[in-house]
Amino acid sequence: MDNLDKILEDGLSSLTKQEAEKLLYDLRDEIDKLDKSIVQLINKRTLFAVYIGRVKGELGLPSYSPEREKEISEKINSYLEEPLTKSALQRIYERIIDESRAIQKVEGKKEKISRSQRK
Predict the structure, then answer these.
(1) Which residue, of 43, 46, 73, 76, is most buried by count of CB atoms within 10 Å of its CB?
(2) CA-angle at 80, arms to 77 and 84, nearest 5°
(3) Model pLDDT, residue 31
(4) Regarding predicted confidence, which is higher, 114 or 18?
C-alpha cells in the first residue's frame, strides 16, 4: 500500500491485470481492517451513550438533548477531511446518534450492563 500514490499518479492503466487484481484485493483487505476498527469504536461509543443515559436518568434529565447534538455536529465537522463531504458525515452521524439514543432507552431500563458490552 506504500506505493499506492505512485500507482495512482502513474495511472492504473499501467498495471497488468494481475497487478490490478492484487491491488483490488489489497484495498479491500484494508477496508475490511478499517471496518473492524470502526465497528469496535461505534460499540465503545454506544456503551458510553448508555452510561450517559443512566446518569441522565439519575439526574432526572431528558435523554434527548438537541444542544448536545448540535455540539457534536459542530465538533465532527471540524474533523472532516476529503473525500468525505460535510453532508455525508452529517448523515452518518445522524444514524449513529439515532441508534445510540434507541439503545440508550432500552439499556437504560436494565439494571446491569453485560460484561461483553464493557470490553
Answers:
(1) 46
(2) 120
(3) 97
(4) 18
**Close Cβ partners of 90 (under 8 Å, ≥ 6 residues apart):** 73, 76, 77
Indicate the burial class of 100 (C-beta count within 10 angstroms; 0-12, 13-18, 19 or more): buried
- What the chain holds in terms of domains, given with CATH numbers, is 4-118 (1.20.59.10)
Contacts of residue 56, defined as CB under 8 A and 6 or more positions apart, other chains included, come to 62, 63
Q: Which three cell numbers stand for residue 102?
A: 434507541
DSSP H or E segment with residue 21: helix 17-59
Using omega within 30 degrees of 0 as the cis cutoff, is the peptide bond preceding 62 cis? Answer: no
